Amino acid sequence: MSIPTLPGITAKTISTPRITTRVLFSGTDDATPVLFLHGNASSATFWEEIMTMLPAGFRGIAPDQRAYGDSDRAKKIDSTRGMGDLADDAIALLDHLGIAKAHLAGHSLGGSVVWRLLADYPDRFLTVTVVCPGSPYGYGGTKDVHGTPTHPDFAGSGGGTVNAAFAQRMAQGDRSLDNPQSAPRAVVNGFYWKPPFVPAREEDLLSSVLAAHVGGEDYPGDHVASANWPFVAPGVYGPTNGLSPKYVGDYVQRLINAEVKPPILWVRGSHDLIISDESLLEMGNLGKLGYIPGWPGMEVYPPQPMVSQTRAVMDSYAAEGGTYKEIVMQDTGHSPFVERPDEFLGYFVAHLGAG
After folding, report:
1. C-alpha 74: how far from its chain's center?
2. pLDDT tens digit string along 237-261?
3. End-to-end CA distance of the chain
């Protein structure tokens, strides 16, 4: 992959005991570290603008996570660990850099990694920021704020729910707008931000999306047939399977009960079509809208209340001694820090001061 970096960003290849990958840096080596984790079908490139805007005294660090960008293609995600591989990769990077504590920010899938980090390594972080994060209960296959499964096999979550034509066109590096329902450029401009916004670095960000590792053991991962609507259940490889609630385990409760509770800033876009109580990529809502035939109805398979689930977990986090603040950035979609970096930075820098 060859994606130009912004002035003020340095790209290095870093090898830890877990993985070799590209890591972007801003600021000076002796400044307070801020670890940035990117979302699904993207790379560290998405965080560059915010990294260059950090005040003096902060050092931005953003790796290409496993299965994305310039990370080692031989290293696969064991989805049965949920986000465990990605969380452990992040800690291995901090250890390699000699960083005991850092501020932490995660976008989308990166926010899902944050939930796991808060369960497994809460004492490593000064503050936490999640931007349009996946629900702590995973993506798809649950039906209420408590994360109750729609089916025992979590049908409707995992790698089989991703548009296969979209993934194939990603693998081909397709930059066209032919057949826009599956064109990566159209999907990015329709879902990653609120139309008609198009970022100045559209081509670089599209390159970042196309740099995802695509295949049965990569993005979106494998899947198995299910007897339950929508007749596909999660497999065991790749990031989308890692997001399945099937593999969440007990880490939501561990997050809530952790003795160390960094303050959390939760930023989301008012028009996010990906992470929403009525997501346009989630099977229950697509069935309700008539896009997927055979929907068994609201009692069996309602839309997943993703935002409401996150708020319920955050309320429990606060009830157990933690703190969080929810910010809704108006007229933005799934990537408000890309759409309105100055506004986002104001919230973000104020929160960094809380740590």
Report:
1. 21
2. 999 999 999 999 999 999 999 999 9
3. 35
Handedness of CA 33, 21, 50, 251 (dihedral sign): negative
pLDDT (mean) for 268-278: 98
Q: Are 205 and 43 in contact (CB under 8 A)?
A: no
| Contact criterion met (CB below 8 Å) for 139 and 334 | no
Amino acid at 99: I
Q: What is the mean pLDDT of the chain?
A: 97
What superfamily would CATH give domain 10-352?
A: Alpha/Beta hydrolase fold, catalytic domain (3.40.50.1820)
- Maximum distance among all Cα pairs of the chain, rounded to whole angstroms: 58
Question: Order of strands across the sheet with 20-26?
Answer: 10-15, 20-26, 58-63, 32-37, 102-107, 125-131, 264-269, 324-329
- Give per-residue pLDDT as tens, 49-108: 999 999 999 999 999 999 999 999 999 999 999 999 999 999 999 999 999 999 999 999
Distances (CA, A) of 111 to 87, 118, 211, 281: 11, 10, 20, 17
Task: State the pTM of this model.
Answer: 0.98
The Cα–Cα gap between 81 and 188 comes to: 28
Amino acid identity at 4: P
The reported pLDDT for the residue numbered 2 is 77
Q: Where are the domains of the chain?
A: 10-352
